[in-house]
Amino acid sequence: MSPDVTVRYFAGARAAAGVETEDRTAATLADLVRQIADAHGPRLEKVLTACSFLVDGQQARDPGLALAPGTVVDVLPPFAGG
Questions:
Q1: How far, CA to CA in Å, does 3 sit from each of 23, 30, 43?
Q2: Could you give phi then psi for residue 57, rounded to 5 degrees?
Q3: Strands, DSSP E only, in the chain?
Q4: Which of 30, 74, 79, 82 has the fewest beta carbons closer than 10 A?
């Protein structure tokens, strides 16, 4: 059985997903990204291509990263600022 993961969306990712947080079941980061893109449609899918991901507070670049039960994944789009 795959672990339950909490996904937290920020800024443009939150707007595209239409939710602030949600729980998902996914074994790897790639599985999770594919699942949330499919669930929330092309707008979020486009945003995800520019996002970075924090897994339990650590930047994650490996799509094959295994997600343990209780993992929190933050979806962070690029931030504008000055």
A1: 10, 14, 26
A2: 85, 0
A3: 4-9, 21-25, 52-55, 58-60, 72-76
A4: 82
Q: How far apart are CA 34 and CA 57, in angstroms?
A: 21
Neighbouring C-beta atoms of residue 53, cutoff 10 Å: 20
Quick one: tokens of 81?
């600022």
What pairs with residue 60 in β-bridges? 53
Statement: residue 60 has pLDDT above 60: yes
Is the pLDDT reported for residue 82 higher than 70? no
Q: Which residue in this structure is represented by tokens 């504008």? A: 80
Q: Find out whether 12 and 47 touch, Cβ atoms under 8 Å.
A: yes
Confidence of residue 78 (pLDDT cuts 50, 70, 90): confident
Tokens (6 digits) for 76: 């962070």
pTM for the predicted model, two decimal places: 0.91
